[in-house]
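Sequence decides. Consider this:

===
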Amino acid sequence: MSVERNKNLTYKQMPQKEIEDKIKFFDKRFKDFLTFKGFYEDVKYNISYISIMDVIIRVDKRKAYYMCFHNMEINECKEVALYAYWILKLRPFSITDARYKRSLDACCINESFVIHLIGFILEFTHRIKRTNNIKESYCRFLEYSFRFRNFSIDSFIVLVESISTETLEKEYPDLYDHPKKR
């Protein structure tokens, strides 16, 4: 009975042009991010465009899911959380430059990029504001958590939506310095 009722609920993939535009967006954002993080201008890196396309389609499917089953469009915060979640799962970005082969920044490039994207959207939507009191320790705390902890997709959305200016101003322990204590 339910199979019959749900047989017309099929996902229609977004047009190829939209996928290509999103790929260009991620390509540009990643290049800007590398500059922001202070990597050499000529740093060698790789982007798995197959994985980025997979990320884009998975987010689009989740947006269709929200529309179909909850009759709602998702906000920018939820959308960036979905992109971040899938980037962390599929790890499409890598630094291939030999100058960074022993660098934690290069090792955690997907985690750092995700934090950058989340911060960009939260600031753009005025959920957080730029202050002089923002501590880097929260970003390191998130980076560690994104690398070594498990999140469901829904808990990840809640996490991103719960980030506030006050959260960013708090001091957090550096988990990379004390991995045996955690």
